[in-house]
Structure formats: structure tokens, C-alpha cells
Amino acid sequence: MTRYKYLLLLFAGITTITLVSCSKYLDKKPDNLLTEEQIWQTRANAEAYLSNIYSARQAGGDYAGIGAADELSVSIPGTTVRYMVGGNWSASDWYFYNWGGYYTAIRKSFIFEQNIDKVPADQLSNELKAQYKAENLFLRGYFYWMLLRQYGPFVKLTSTVSQDEDMNKYPRAPFDTCVKFINDMMDGAAAGLPFVWSSSGNNGRATRGACLAVKAKVAQWAASPLWNGNPALASFKNQDGTALAPSGYDVNKWRIAAQAAKAIIDSNKYKLFTNLDNGGTSFDPFLSVRDLFLTSWNDEIILASMNWQRWGYTICSSPGPAGYNLYNATQNVVDAFYMNNGKTITDPASGYVETGFAAKDGDHYWENKEGDWNMYAKREPRFYAYIAYNRRPVVAAVSVDDKNYFSSEKNKDGNGRQEFYYSGKSGMLGMGSNIITGYLPSKLLSPNDNLRSMSTDAYRSPYILIRYSEILLDYVEALNEYDPANTDIVKYLNMVRTRAGLPGIETVYPGAVGNQEEMRKYILRERQVEFCFEGDRYYTLIRRLLMSKPENQAIYGMNVNAKDNDQGFSFTGFYTRTLFQKRYWDNKMYMFPIQQQDLERDRALVQNPGW
User: Which residues of 516-527 are buried (b: 16+ CB within 10 A; e: fewer)?
Assistant: First the structure.
């Protein structure tokens, strides 16, 4: 119960921080601290102000995406995301409410823009002022992009709102207007920024590459079914009858999205990370997909935040008794990973075996060991880098003694194998209801961390917001929608597969080449695996109108409640697919609601459909 109370306080704290930071975007209260002349008299204060605007980015993850898609669930019932997926959600709730917070950051960006030239020349050069203005403009456009993604059409502000302003004359702008508005800001910011920074001290700052990446993401959003001729939004209008959603499908929007992604590819400024970039002497797919997230910076990162606390995520994703078993991976995502021959587990030719114990170790050091359940045998490297399953060694435990801490007496062999079965150290008997699926995510967890001593190298690595792999898959997805015979689809999809240690798609599934529907299936599956636990799955299901599909609402795991009667790892009843949760879905949930309090502040605002 003590652990429960701590975790509930943790999530309550996240919500409280969100609420405190979410000053309403039309708040009349003067902010004297932000307008005092002394702030603009020193370089340090001006830079601190810009850093404060940067801090509004969601460093450490998009909490709305944690547990809302079919790849993950949060083990504690009384958390915000569990309320949401259970249907306990209305426009009066504050769940992951970012509308006010982003507008607060946007307001600060206007104040910065209006005042930065006041800083004396002996404090801040004209060159740096121009750079900071460009960074500030990027951030403003980025926050508008975040609003568009979560809430749809936004209120387009071009300056701060004065205290005596009529607060009822700010309606939402049409979707396509919002897209152009963001693109214009990104173009303006890009003109004053380098493509990449030459100094590592600037890591995490806006770049021209980040501007192009945001434009690519906005174009993808505009081309996807949610906003590209969605008939469910035909009546979504302002009070004066202005349509807020595009009226018809336009395949050319996919062409625009492809061109936006290709501009980044053609810049030759980014590449997929491999272990060779980290001092390796021969290519290792397991280390390549694992260490991408554990290096201080690398050429795959396009946009990242340098101020996130990975250690908190590590504790929540790690097994008991030192970890919390809080973020539980699902059977749904486990089934999405390929076999090591690049085939899906449903393919009769894949070699997948659902039951029984493996008779020998896998072919590579990262694969399964003898005695592991066959379901986990001969899977692709990303599976072993990203999924913690029953009997898989604990990641965040260094010494033999540390590893044994996670093992029952009969299992203490120096490997620290995770015990998710009922009476195991991390199982239901010992951890209460803190393990609900029988899996944990191991992505982002460092082998140099030590859960038992609470020591970490978490401060070395940034939180990646956009990476090159995402741009490659954005490109092939867009190409497939308007030009399915284009050879670039196979070329760039295979780049991601090759880095993951898989054969080319044309080798494994030649029938998908040139077949739009089949290729779409594999592209979306590649996204599901490559970006698991990064928030992409949630937004992919949203923009493609797939969240409502029954298979994405039925969440499965292993049978964690079955009494193993001290059989431990030999208990076969644990490995039974068990429906953990049948989630609630209403199509209004494709967009977050605007909080009722903000609707009352600005009477020109219309609520999102269904709310």
C-alpha cells in the first residue's frame, strides 16, 4: 500500500504540474515578472527566459501516449490514463490538458520576441539575437503543432492579448489554415538556423533540420485519414459556419508529405545510428537498436530534449522488488515483433512456436536461452532489446549480487532472471497488482544502471522527440499512398529493417512490393515495432482512424494470476494468452476535449465533436 500511495502521488504530481503550468491562454492577469525591464538588460536573463520557453516541450515522454495505445498499460487502476481508456472522461476533466500550457509558452515567445532587442549590444551580439529569434519562432511553431495534434484546429494568435481585449472574438482557425500557419513559422525559423549544430553544447536547440521535420510531421497529419476528407468532421464548424475540417479527400496531401520527408533525407545531414558509431568494430543489430537511446547524442537525432529524467522512467519500467512494475508491455506488441528471419509470427513459414520450452540457446548472444518459453525464441533483435519477459535477465542490475536480488532462492544463479509468474519476486503474490500483463518495456533502460543501489547514467542521454528513422518511415508511408510502385518504398523501408538485423521486405514478402494495401500493413507494423513505447503508436492509430478497431481495444497479456504452486519458471499455465482489458472507445476521443473553463472564457470557441 505504501508503494501504491507513492505511485499515485507520482501521477497526481504529474497532473498537478500540468495544471499549475496551464495558465489559460486568454488570462487577463498581467505577468509583471515577465515584462520588467531588468530581465532584458543581461544576456544571462534573456537566455534564461528562452530556456524557460524550451522547457515547455514535453521532456521525458508524452504522458498522453503512455498506456493509451495497445502497446502498454499502466498497472495502477487509479491513474489518469486508466480512467481515459475506461471511458471515465469528460470535457470537465483535466486529463493531460495541454491547451493552456502551450498557449502560455506561445505567449512567452511573443514577449521574448518583443523584448530581445532591448538587451545591450555589449551583452548580446546582433548575431546571437537573430539566432535566438529564430529558435524562439521555431518553438512557437512547435507548440502550435502540438496543439494541432492533440486538439485539432487552434486559435491563431499573432501577438500577446492585452488586458482589455474582447475575449470572445477568438474563434478557431480552419485546419488547413493552421497547417500553413505552422509551415510559415518553420520556414521563417529555418532561415536563421544551421541545419545541425557544430558544437555539442547546442544539442537540443532548434535547427533547420528540426524545422523541416516538424513540417514533415504536420504534412503527414494533414494527409492522414483523420483530417483528409474525414466525413465524421463534415459538421465541425465555427459558430459563423466556417468549416474547420477539409471537406474532401486529397491524395496530393500524401505527395506533399512525401516531399517534406524527402527534403530531410536529401540533406544528407542525418543517418541511422549503429553500434559502429559507438566504437564497435563489427555491425551488431542488437547494440545498434539498444544504444541508439543511450548515447549522449548521435546523427539519428533530429530533435531532442536534454533535460528529461530517464531514471524515473527506469524505475517505473523495471521489475520488483527494486522497480515498480508500473509500465506493462502487452501481448499485442509482443506479437508484433518479427521472427529473426523477418517473417511475422502468423506466417506458417516463420518457424514460430507458441508453446513449450526452448531446447537450446538462440543463435546469437542477445536471443533466448535454453528453457525460455518458445514464444520468445528466435525473435528479431529489437524484441530482445525492447521487451522484458518472464525469465529474461533484469537490465538495470550490474553485479551478480545485484542480479540475485531479483531472484527467489531457487533461482539465484547470477543472471537475475525476471520472475513474473504468480509467486515470483516480481509476481502478483509479492507485488500485489503491480504486474498485469507479464511483460515490461526494456527500451531506454541502460545496462549501466543499478536499480538496487539507485545509481544511474541517466543524465547522459537525451529524450528523442524526432529521429531519422521516423522520417524514413514517414516517407515510405506517404509514397505508398499515392505512388505504390515507387522503388523508394522498398529502399528506405529496408534501411530500417537492415539496421534491425532483418532481411529486405522484397525478400521476405515479395508480394507486398507494389501492392498498396499489403505494403501499408507492413509499413504500419514496422512503425509499431520500431517506435514502440515512444508515443508514435498512439498517434499513428489516431491519425489513421485505427484506434476504434476492436483488435486495438482488446489488450492481452500472460496469465499472471494463475497459481504456479511454486513451480516457478517451469509453470506452463503462466504462458496463456489472457484478456487483461477490453478498453472503452468513442470516436470523439480522436481529439482531446477543450476544457469547459476555457470554453467559458472564450465564447467564440467551439468544442471538439462529440464532447
Answer: eeebbebbbebb
Q: At residue 17, does pLDDT exceed 50?
A: no
- Residue 571: what are its φ and ψ, rounded to 5°? -75, 115
Which ranges of 483-595 would DSSP assign to H, the alpha helix?
Answer: 488-499, 505-508, 516-530, 536-543, 550-553
> For the residues of 352-377, what is the DSSP string, one character each?
---SSB-SS--SSTTS--TTSBGGGT
Asked if 394 and 416 touch (Cβ cutoff 8 Å), the reply is yes
C-alpha 144/C-alpha 182 separation (Å) is 7
In the numeric block, the cell 515479395 is attached to 510
CA atoms within 13 A on the CB side of 211: 25
Neighbours of 48 (CB within 10 A): 11
Bridge partners, residue 556, by sequence: 579
Distance CA 305, CA 205 (A): 8
Percent of the chain with pLDDT over 70: 92
What number of other Cβ atoms are within 10 A of residue 86's Cβ?
13
How many helices and strands (H and E) does the chain possess? 22, 8
| Segment 371-380 mean pLDDT | 98
Q: Which residues contact 180 (CB under 8 A, 6 or more apart)?
A: none
Taking the whole predicted model, whether its pTM rises above 0.85 is answered as: yes
Please state the length of the chain: 611
* Cell of residue 360, nine digits: 537450446
DSSP secondary structure of 320-359: TTTS---EEE-HHHHHHSPBTTS--TTSTTS----SSB-S
From residue 522, how far is each of 237, 240, 416, 422, 489 by CA, in Å? 36, 43, 35, 36, 11
Q: Pick from 213, 50, 261, 222: which is nearest to 139 by CA?
A: 50
Question: CA 403, CA 394: separation in Å to the nearest integer?
Answer: 7
19-74 confidence digits (pLDDT tens): 333 334 344 444 445 456 789 999 999 999 999 999 998 755 555 568 999 999 99
- Give the burial class of 346: count Cβ atoms within 10 A of its Cβ; 0-12 exposed, 13-18 middle, 19 or more buried: exposed
Angle at 187 between CA 183 and CA 188, to 5 degrees: 120
- Nearest to 157, CA basis, from 181, 183, 191: 181
On the question of pLDDT at 193 being above 70, the answer is: yes
Task: Look at residue 455 and give its three-state secondary structure.
Answer: strand
pLDDT of residue 110: 97
Phi and psi torsions of 549, nearest 5°: -65, 135
Residues 6+ apart with CB under 8 A from 347: 339
- Averaged pLDDT score across all residues of the chain: 91
pLDDT band at 102 (very low <50, low <70, confident <90, very high): very high
Instruction: Write a three-state SS string for 177-205.
Output: HHHHHHHHHHHHHHCCCCCCCCCHHHCCC
